[in-house]
Recover the amino acids of this structure.
């Protein structure tokens, strides 16, 4: 059985959606919703639970059991078992990610995700932060802000002996941008991270500030990061410009050196996350058509 | 550099430079030079590059094969069964870009069955831009209808980017399904219905797909609400 669903990328999945036919390509191991729920109940088989959590999020399950089962999975902790191929807390992390994708029904799980944001596991805090951002959970603004308040030199300092920072700064910053509370104390905590030594953190901070303020200076910095020598940084800047819907980046996005698939995701963001996103039922305006034309050229 | 000033020796030298390349960057540069020549004599070598697991060079090779156009199609099709997955994906992209009807079955199969969304996306676009006017009228209609059928099935793809490419494919296929070219308006109507379905799909997770469908309908002059 496929136990390695794709790693979620930075592009927040915020669109509500209905069922996707799992027998078609791109929808993962073809199992039914009932089967996914059954596997999620198998608390002695973490790799089945891991896949089931991912499946329910990927297919935007609306089943009434999905959220309660994911809430339970979010509390599941087990010792690391390398033989099982599933790391400690892997099921809980996937449950958090899935909750982030389930939209309205998952609002009930916000208190659980807020508790998870205080977990000692760095990866779990990261997944919880992203899910809270996906769910636009305003209750998370203060705890997210508090985790970042010590600034780049403490929260953003590297942990000795690992490549990790003290806090999952990228996820925390992105969540604040996605939730969209643009109050001065929030902006004041994000701003210092624009000077962080790591370009990926700078990119996340600019993204959040651009989402919250629509100020050109943050968009300009992201466009500059599209020229960065590392592909990984260019990719992040692409996703961040898309998340902020910064239309002025259309040309730089189309011409940066990165995969067409990622440029298409970024351009989709320029269409959908622009403050003046047209109704999908109406014919698009001229500016939107320019973005669509650029997308057509990348197919 | 245009084809007319290239002698066979030039092409051989460019091919040898690709074969001699001993670094990723060297391969990229040599492939770009051979691709820029757009000479049919370079097609076999460009097809080989598709299998080298060097994405930059593969992009250049695809561009070169598209620039060579129809004379490259046989070489691509003769080799396609022996391709590894990555090379096959690049070959689909090349065939989609060339638009030769001999590539139809590969594109049809890729849109329906390939595991890579970027391959299905290229195939959907390619199915809308085959050069059908080179065919005899009876064959032209049959092929256009098969393109339509493949794209209609692609409307249910699980990836938004593939559905987006299906919209683009349907829009560009529309002129080939004009009622005057076919026996009546049935196929054109199916095409319009497919676009309206994508535009109205209540389960669509990507509003950009709906917007693109609305634009296609507007460009085709279909009133849709």
């Amino acid at each position: 059985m496929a136990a390695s669903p794709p790693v979620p990328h930075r592009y927040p999945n915020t669109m509500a959606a209905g069922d996707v036919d799992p027998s078609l390509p791109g929808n993962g191991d073809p199992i039914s919703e009932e089967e996914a729920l059954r596997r999620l109940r198998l608390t002695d088989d973490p790799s089945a639970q891991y896949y089931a959590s991912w499946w329910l999020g990927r297919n935007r399950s609306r089943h009434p059991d999905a959220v309660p089962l994911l809430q339970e999975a979010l509390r599941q902790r087990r010792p690391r078992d390398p033989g099982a191929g599933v790391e400690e807390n892997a099921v809980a992390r996937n449950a958090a990610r899935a909750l982030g994708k389930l939209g309205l029904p998952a609002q009930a799980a916000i208190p659980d995700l807020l508790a998870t944001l205080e977990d000692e596991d760095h990866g779990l805090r990261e997944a919880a932060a992203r899910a809270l951002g996906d769910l636009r959970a305003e209750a998370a603004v203060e705890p997210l802000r508090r985790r970042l308040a010590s600034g780049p030199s403490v929260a953003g300092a590297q942990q000795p002996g690992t490549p990790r920072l003290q806090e999952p700064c990228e996820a925390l910053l992105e969540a604040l941008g996605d939730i969209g509370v643009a109050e001065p104390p929030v902006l004041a905590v994000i701003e210092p991270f624009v000077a962080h030594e790591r370009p990926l953190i700078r990119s996340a901070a600019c993204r959040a500030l651009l989402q919250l303020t629509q100020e050109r200076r943050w968009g300009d910095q992201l466009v500059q990061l599209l020229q960065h020598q590392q592909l990984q940084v260019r990719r992040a800047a692409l996703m961040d410009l898309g998340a902020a819907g910064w239309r002025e980046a259309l040309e730089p996005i189309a011409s940066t050196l990165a995969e067409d698939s990622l440029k298409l995701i970024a351009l989709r963001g320029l269409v959908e996350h622009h403050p003046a996103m047209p109704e999908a039922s109406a014919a698009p305006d001229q500016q939107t058509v320019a973005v669509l034309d650029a997308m057509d050229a990348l197919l | 550099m245009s084809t007319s000033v290239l002698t066979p020796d030039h092409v051989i030298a460019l091919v040898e430079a690709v074969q001699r390349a001993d670094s990723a960057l060297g391969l990229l540069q040599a492939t770009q030079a051979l691709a820029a020549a757009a000479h049919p004599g370079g097609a076999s070598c460009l097809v080989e590059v598709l299998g080298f697991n060097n994405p930059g060079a593969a992009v250049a090779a695809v561009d070169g094969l598209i620039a060579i156009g129809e004379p490259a199609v046989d070489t691509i099709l003769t080799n396609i069964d022996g391709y590894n997955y990555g090379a096959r994906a690049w070959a689909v992209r090349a065939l989609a870009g060339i638009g030769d009807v001999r590539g139809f079955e590969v594109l049809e199969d890729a849109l329906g069955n390939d595991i890579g969304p970027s391959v299905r996306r290229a195939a959907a676009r390619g199915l809308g831009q085959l050069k059908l006017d080179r065919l005899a009228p009876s064959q032209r209609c049959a092929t256009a209808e098969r393109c339509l059928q493949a794209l209609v099935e692609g409307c249910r793809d699980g990836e938004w980017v593939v559905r987006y490419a299906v919209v683009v494919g349907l829009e560009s296929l529309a002129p080939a399904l004009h009622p005057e070219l076919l026996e009546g308006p049935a196929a054109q109507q199916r095409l319009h219905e497919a676009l309206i379905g994508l535009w109205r799909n209540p389960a669509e997770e990507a509003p950009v797909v709906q917007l693109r469908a609305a634009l296609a309908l507007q460009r085709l002059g279909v009133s849709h609400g």
